[in-house]
């Protein structure tokens, strides 16, 4: 194989080891997103909390994660991704143990802070490892696997936590989650050589002002905006789709929940397809993203229009996940193309913090729609936000070309 086709001449087995370990870590990050929400009914019964208080827990999680993610990028670039990843897994273990012993709202708030801190590190650490360790022609597949494992982490969490809670109780479920995170941490430590990256910024030879120079690059902020907008749409689906389906079409809770599960599984399947697209047309990733998000916006608007019956709405909503999933790996490739050399951790940290910002804003804004019974308008609003992200993605492509 020529150096043009494989500049690093890295064996597939070595790339697969990196992709697998990083993917497992990323799955644990998405698993952590649901550690608190899945137990909300239990917290209401046990601690007498209101939904507003429970919602504040998630707001704290996303705020801490967003602020920490932007900072974590600098830490990754300066000290390498591996120690940051180990620290994140340790934070998850401690958060689960604290949750298992929690006897107050304050303790749950501390759990939210720890989970947010742990979650904040994964995107800058993961993508630094993938970009440094995986050969260039396999990066599209690496990004696909990364997104796929994240979706699988979401899918596993309900089965794991609810299953243990049913067999024992909720505190045992959190102990089980702590053991799961500890096992993953031990595996990562055992294979630590596979995750070794080189620090690219050092305090002794790079002025602080220069380390912040990437913030002057407008494309970074356009990428931030893209992630913020797409996250707003995802949170609407995750938070409100079950209630919307029940209110608009009178479907059962089980059927509505299965639709959300189908959405996530379709998104995972889409990621697999999207990985091949990202690997074959990496230079036009923003166009792939734009097409996928446009299709998803159309599907979501159809669901909110009321023109479809219950079955058709559930099917089309699930297919929305497929369209978004296909665009996932190209989205990550789009960010790579826009990233200045030597600033991977910082850029990914800043850009992916847009997810946390969008996730914190969206429930507050569209929650007003839901309270007023504007269920269809909530989905149409989500479609409008997603359509706006198409324009942002194309703007990223134009600015990357002329950078």
Explained architecture:
- This protein is mainly alpha-helical.
- The chain has two domains: 11-194, Growth Hormone, Chain: A; 206-403, Up-down Bundle (Growth Hormone, Chain: A), CATH 1.20.1250.
- 81% of the residues lie in helices and 0% in strands.
- The protein has 15 helices and no strands.
- Helix 1 (12-33) runs antiparallel to helix 8 and helix 3 (51-79) packs antiparallel against helix 4 (81-101).
In the CATH hierarchy, what is the class of the largest domain? Mainly Alpha
Give a short account of the largest sheet.
none
Give the mean pLDDT.
Answer: 82
CATH topology of the largest domain: Growth Hormone, Chain: A
Query: Would you identify the regions where 5 or more consecutive residues have pLDDT less than 50?
Result: 1-7, 201-210
Number of domains: 2
The SSE order reads: HHHHHHHHHHHHHHH
CA-atom Rg in angstroms: 21 Å
Secondary structure class reads: mainly alpha
- Principal-axis shape equals globular
Helix count, per DSSP? 15
Number of strands: 0
Gap from first CA to last CA: 32 Å
The CATH homologous superfamily of the largest domain is termed MFS general substrate transporter like domains
Helix content: over 70%
